[in-house]
């Protein structure tokens, strides 16, 4: 295992790109312990490595930005415990690690719905973001879930719509939009929620609501939802 870890970390270092790190910093990505390795390269490495739960823990423990994203790609969702999720989420220090973990791994765990509710009420910026990113991702990927599960998220979205931290407000907005694009029923309920949020005396809430309404009421979204309704 140690040899494999050292080989992987060496390969990551060999792919380092200082110019990419500088560019990432401009997009709000933490440049500390970051090599600037592209996501396509990480996906290629993940495919070559295969699924390996123990290796994922080693990669995460390295503290290296790209190694942590890679860890989320190679870990096995059915082996991820709530303790691991809590441990990793506390380490989030950048939106791309947060989003990558949620998309690559956390949304596929049996704790996903519970964790997004729990994390949405936490104060830490990237923990709270993770809660809403999970909501957004589940709305897209969990095709079998009932509308009720997403309707339960809407009061939480409204509750947190006044958080003015950039990475939180964008995730709150993302969750609202993705729920509203799932089907025509959720679209109408999400738009109503957005209009309720719009009434809150908060610049952030008004931005979240206006942006969501613009997309959810757009012709492109409405046409797609109506077409999907006719085909089901």
Structural description of this entry:
With 232 residues, the chain is an all-alpha fold. The protein folds into two domains: 1-75, no CATH class; 94-232, Serine Threonine Protein Phosphatase 5, Tetratricopeptide repeat (Alpha Horseshoe). It is built from 15 helices and no strands. It is globular and about 50 Å long.
In CATH terms, what is the fold-level topology of the largest domain? Serine Threonine Protein Phosphatase 5, Tetratricopeptide repeat
Poorly predicted parts: none
Distance between the termini: 49 Å
CATH architectural category of the largest domain: Alpha Horseshoe
> Percent helix among the residues?
over 70%
What is the CATH class of the largest domain? Mainly Alpha
Please provide the ordered H/E string of secondary-structure elements: HHHHHHHHHHHHHHH
- Overall geometry comes to globular
Q: Which whole number gives the mean pLDDT?
A: 95
User: Radius of gyration, Cα only, in angstroms?
Assistant: 19 Å
Number of helices: 15
Major sheet summary line: none
Q: Tally of extended strands?
A: 0
How many structural domains can be distinguished in the coordinates? 2
Structural class: mainly alpha
Beta-strand proportion: under 5%
């Amino acid at each position: 295992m140690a040899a494999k870890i050292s080989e992987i970390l060496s390969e990551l270092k060999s792919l380092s790109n200082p110019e990419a790190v500088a560019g990432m910093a401009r997009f709000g990505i933490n440049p500390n312990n970051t090599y600037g390795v592209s996501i396509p390269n990480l996906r290629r490495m993940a495919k070559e490595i295969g699924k390996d739960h123990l290796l994922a823990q080693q990669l995460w423990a390295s503290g290296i930005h790209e190694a942590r994203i890679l860890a989320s790609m190679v870990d096995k969702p059915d082996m991820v415990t709530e303790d691991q999720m809590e441990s990793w989420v506390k380490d989030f220090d950048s939106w791309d690690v947060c989003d990558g973990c949620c998309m690559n791994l956390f949304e596929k765990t049996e704790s996903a719905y519970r964790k997004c509710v729990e994390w949405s009420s936490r104060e830490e910026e990237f923990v709270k973001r993770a809660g809403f990113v999970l909501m957004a991702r589940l709305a897209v990927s969990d095709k079998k879930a009932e509308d009720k599960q997403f309707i339960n998220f809407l009061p939480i979205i409204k509750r947190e719509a006044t958080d003015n931290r950039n990475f939180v407000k964008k995730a709150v907005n993302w969750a609202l939009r993705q729920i509203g694009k799932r089907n025509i029923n959720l679209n109408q309920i999400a738009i109503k929620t957005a209009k309720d949020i719009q009434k809150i005396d908060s610049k952030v809430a008004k931005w979240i609501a206006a942006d969501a309404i613009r997309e959810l009421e757009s012709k492109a979204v409405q046409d797609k939802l109506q077409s999907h309704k006719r085909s089901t």
